[in-house]
Design brief:
single chain, 213 residues, alpha/beta, Rossmann fold, 2 domains, six-stranded parallel beta sheet, two-stranded antiparallel sheet, 14% strand
Length: 213
Protein backbone atom coordinates (compact mmCIF):
# COMPACT_ATOMS: atom_id res chain seq x y z
CA UNK A 1 0.00 0.00 0.00
CA UNK A 2 1.04 3.64 -0.43
CA UNK A 3 2.60 5.36 2.60
CA UNK A 4 0.19 8.24 1.93
CA UNK A 5 -2.87 6.00 2.40
CA UNK A 6 -4.70 6.76 5.62
CA UNK A 7 -5.86 4.09 8.04
CA UNK A 8 -8.38 4.31 10.86
CA UNK A 9 -8.29 1.55 13.46
CA UNK A 10 -11.26 1.60 15.81
CA UNK A 11 -11.97 0.00 19.10
CA UNK A 12 -15.51 -1.42 18.94
CA UNK A 13 -17.24 -1.05 22.30
CA UNK A 14 -17.91 2.60 23.07
CA UNK A 15 -16.74 3.82 19.66
CA UNK A 16 -18.98 1.99 17.19
CA UNK A 17 -21.27 0.01 19.49
CA UNK A 18 -22.95 0.99 22.77
CA UNK A 19 -22.83 -2.23 24.76
CA UNK A 20 -22.55 -0.85 28.28
CA UNK A 21 -25.82 -2.25 29.63
CA UNK A 22 -25.17 -5.61 27.96
CA UNK A 23 -21.68 -5.86 29.44
CA UNK A 24 -22.83 -4.78 32.90
CA UNK A 25 -25.58 -7.41 32.95
CA UNK A 26 -23.23 -10.21 31.82
CA UNK A 27 -20.55 -9.31 34.37
CA UNK A 28 -23.09 -9.24 37.18
CA UNK A 29 -24.33 -12.69 36.17
CA UNK A 30 -20.76 -14.01 36.39
CA UNK A 31 -20.25 -12.41 39.79
CA UNK A 32 -23.57 -13.76 41.08
CA UNK A 33 -22.42 -17.30 40.26
CA UNK A 34 -19.40 -16.94 42.54
CA UNK A 35 -21.13 -15.07 45.34
CA UNK A 36 -20.06 -11.57 44.37
CA UNK A 37 -22.35 -8.61 44.69
CA UNK A 38 -23.61 -6.65 41.68
CA UNK A 39 -21.56 -3.69 40.47
CA UNK A 40 -22.92 -0.38 39.23
CA UNK A 41 -22.46 1.21 35.82
CA UNK A 42 -20.14 3.80 37.38
CA UNK A 43 -17.97 1.06 38.85
CA UNK A 44 -17.85 -0.75 35.51
CA UNK A 45 -16.80 2.41 33.69
CA UNK A 46 -14.15 3.18 36.31
CA UNK A 47 -12.63 -0.28 35.84
CA UNK A 48 -13.22 -0.76 32.12
CA UNK A 49 -10.11 -1.80 30.25
CA UNK A 50 -9.04 -4.09 33.08
CA UNK A 51 -12.37 -5.69 34.03
CA UNK A 52 -10.98 -9.24 34.13
CA UNK A 53 -8.76 -8.34 37.11
CA UNK A 54 -11.82 -9.05 39.22
CA UNK A 55 -10.14 -9.47 42.61
CA UNK A 56 -8.36 -6.13 42.43
CA UNK A 57 -11.26 -4.15 40.98
CA UNK A 58 -14.32 -5.78 42.54
CA UNK A 59 -13.15 -8.08 45.33
CA UNK A 60 -14.43 -11.12 43.41
CA UNK A 61 -12.11 -14.14 43.38
CA UNK A 62 -12.39 -15.85 39.98
CA UNK A 63 -9.64 -16.74 37.53
CA UNK A 64 -9.29 -14.70 34.35
CA UNK A 65 -9.93 -17.81 32.24
CA UNK A 66 -13.11 -18.67 34.14
CA UNK A 67 -14.30 -15.06 34.04
CA UNK A 68 -14.02 -14.87 30.25
CA UNK A 69 -15.57 -18.30 29.79
CA UNK A 70 -18.69 -17.36 31.78
CA UNK A 71 -18.78 -13.82 30.40
CA UNK A 72 -18.90 -15.16 26.84
CA UNK A 73 -21.70 -17.51 27.92
CA UNK A 74 -23.85 -14.72 29.35
CA UNK A 75 -23.28 -11.95 26.77
CA UNK A 76 -25.70 -13.33 24.12
CA UNK A 77 -28.33 -13.92 26.80
CA UNK A 78 -28.50 -10.29 27.98
CA UNK A 79 -32.03 -8.83 27.88
CA UNK A 80 -30.74 -5.66 26.21
CA UNK A 81 -28.40 -6.21 23.29
CA UNK A 82 -25.89 -3.60 22.01
CA UNK A 83 -26.93 -0.85 19.61
CA UNK A 84 -24.88 1.05 17.08
CA UNK A 85 -23.96 4.54 18.25
CA UNK A 86 -25.99 7.08 16.27
CA UNK A 87 -24.43 8.18 12.98
CA UNK A 88 -21.42 5.88 13.08
CA UNK A 89 -22.42 4.03 9.91
CA UNK A 90 -22.56 7.32 7.98
CA UNK A 91 -19.10 8.28 9.23
CA UNK A 92 -17.59 4.93 8.29
CA UNK A 93 -19.09 5.02 4.80
CA UNK A 94 -17.83 8.56 4.24
CA UNK A 95 -14.32 7.59 5.26
CA UNK A 96 -14.38 4.47 3.10
CA UNK A 97 -15.56 6.56 0.12
CA UNK A 98 -12.52 8.78 0.66
CA UNK A 99 -10.20 5.76 0.47
CA UNK A 100 -9.49 5.58 4.20
CA UNK A 101 -8.74 1.97 5.08
CA UNK A 102 -10.79 0.84 8.10
CA UNK A 103 -10.00 -1.77 10.74
CA UNK A 104 -11.31 -2.91 14.12
CA UNK A 105 -9.16 -4.32 16.93
CA UNK A 106 -11.23 -5.15 19.99
CA UNK A 107 -11.08 -7.24 23.15
CA UNK A 108 -14.79 -8.00 22.62
CA UNK A 109 -15.42 -11.71 21.85
CA UNK A 110 -15.09 -12.31 18.10
CA UNK A 111 -18.41 -14.11 17.77
CA UNK A 112 -20.30 -11.20 19.35
CA UNK A 113 -18.31 -8.69 17.32
CA UNK A 114 -19.30 -10.46 14.09
CA UNK A 115 -22.97 -10.61 15.05
CA UNK A 116 -23.13 -6.93 15.94
CA UNK A 117 -21.34 -5.79 12.79
CA UNK A 118 -23.62 -7.85 10.56
CA UNK A 119 -26.69 -6.51 12.38
CA UNK A 120 -25.44 -2.93 11.96
CA UNK A 121 -24.69 -3.47 8.27
CA UNK A 122 -21.08 -2.27 8.46
CA UNK A 123 -19.02 -5.46 8.36
CA UNK A 124 -18.15 -5.04 4.68
CA UNK A 125 -16.53 -1.65 5.33
CA UNK A 126 -13.60 -3.06 7.33
CA UNK A 127 -10.37 -4.33 5.81
CA UNK A 128 -9.53 -6.14 9.06
CA UNK A 129 -12.06 -6.99 11.76
CA UNK A 130 -10.63 -8.71 14.81
CA UNK A 131 -11.98 -9.39 18.29
CA UNK A 132 -10.68 -11.25 21.35
CA UNK A 133 -7.43 -9.28 21.15
CA UNK A 134 -5.29 -9.43 24.29
CA UNK A 135 -2.59 -6.89 23.41
CA UNK A 136 -3.69 -4.03 21.16
CA UNK A 137 -0.27 -2.40 20.96
CA UNK A 138 1.33 -5.53 19.54
CA UNK A 139 -1.56 -6.08 17.13
CA UNK A 140 -1.44 -2.50 15.83
CA UNK A 141 2.32 -2.73 15.28
CA UNK A 142 1.98 -6.08 13.51
CA UNK A 143 -0.85 -4.80 11.31
CA UNK A 144 1.15 -1.76 10.20
CA UNK A 145 4.07 -4.00 9.35
CA UNK A 146 1.82 -6.40 7.43
CA UNK A 147 0.53 -3.64 5.15
CA UNK A 148 3.64 -1.39 5.22
CA UNK A 149 1.67 1.46 6.78
CA UNK A 150 3.03 4.79 7.90
CA UNK A 151 2.57 5.55 11.61
CA UNK A 152 1.89 9.20 10.78
CA UNK A 153 -1.06 8.21 8.60
CA UNK A 154 -2.45 5.58 10.97
CA UNK A 155 -5.11 6.63 13.49
CA UNK A 156 -6.44 4.71 16.46
CA UNK A 157 -9.81 5.73 17.95
CA UNK A 158 -10.74 4.41 21.38
CA UNK A 159 -13.00 5.30 24.29
CA UNK A 160 -10.71 4.36 27.22
CA UNK A 161 -7.32 5.35 28.55
CA UNK A 162 -6.21 1.76 27.88
CA UNK A 163 -6.86 2.38 24.17
CA UNK A 164 -4.96 5.66 24.18
CA UNK A 165 -1.97 4.12 25.97
CA UNK A 166 -1.97 1.23 23.46
CA UNK A 167 -2.08 3.58 20.47
CA UNK A 168 0.64 5.83 21.86
CA UNK A 169 2.87 2.81 22.51
CA UNK A 170 2.35 1.74 18.89
CA UNK A 171 3.35 5.22 17.70
CA UNK A 172 0.13 6.04 15.85
CA UNK A 173 -2.11 9.12 16.01
CA UNK A 174 -4.45 8.61 18.97
CA UNK A 175 -8.06 9.82 19.17
CA UNK A 176 -10.15 9.65 22.31
CA UNK A 177 -13.91 9.32 21.74
CA UNK A 178 -16.28 10.31 24.56
CA UNK A 179 -19.21 8.06 23.57
CA UNK A 180 -18.02 5.10 25.63
CA UNK A 181 -16.75 3.99 29.01
CA UNK A 182 -14.36 6.77 30.04
CA UNK A 183 -15.14 10.45 30.53
CA UNK A 184 -13.48 13.27 28.62
CA UNK A 185 -11.45 14.22 31.70
CA UNK A 186 -10.19 10.68 32.10
CA UNK A 187 -9.30 10.41 28.42
CA UNK A 188 -7.40 13.70 28.65
CA UNK A 189 -5.25 12.19 31.40
CA UNK A 190 -3.84 9.72 28.85
CA UNK A 191 -2.83 12.59 26.53
CA UNK A 192 -4.32 11.51 23.18
CA UNK A 193 -3.48 13.56 20.10
CA UNK A 194 -7.17 14.44 19.72
CA UNK A 195 -10.39 14.14 21.71
CA UNK A 196 -13.77 14.12 19.96
CA UNK A 197 -17.35 13.98 21.21
CA UNK A 198 -18.52 11.45 18.61
CA UNK A 199 -16.86 9.46 15.83
CA UNK A 200 -18.01 12.10 13.35
CA UNK A 201 -15.13 14.21 14.64
CA UNK A 202 -12.56 11.91 13.02
CA UNK A 203 -13.58 12.99 9.52
CA UNK A 204 -11.83 16.40 9.46
CA UNK A 205 -8.96 15.07 11.58
CA UNK A 206 -8.17 12.31 9.09
CA UNK A 207 -9.05 13.97 5.81
CA UNK A 208 -7.17 17.18 6.66
CA UNK A 209 -4.24 15.48 8.36
CA UNK A 210 -0.66 16.23 7.43
CA UNK A 211 2.07 13.87 8.67
CA UNK A 212 3.96 14.93 11.80
CA UNK A 213 7.39 16.41 11.17
Amino acid sequence: MSLEEKILICDWSGVVSDDRETVLWAINQVFQEVGGGPITMNKLCDSYGNVSDTKKNFGVDITVERFWERYKFFIPKAPKQPVMIHGVDVVLRRLASNNVRLAVFSAHPQVELDKEAQRYGVRDLFYVFEGSIKNKTDRIKAFMQEISASRDNTFYAGDTTVDIVAGRAAGVVTIGVTTGYHTRARLESAKPDHIIETLEGVVPIILNHSPRL
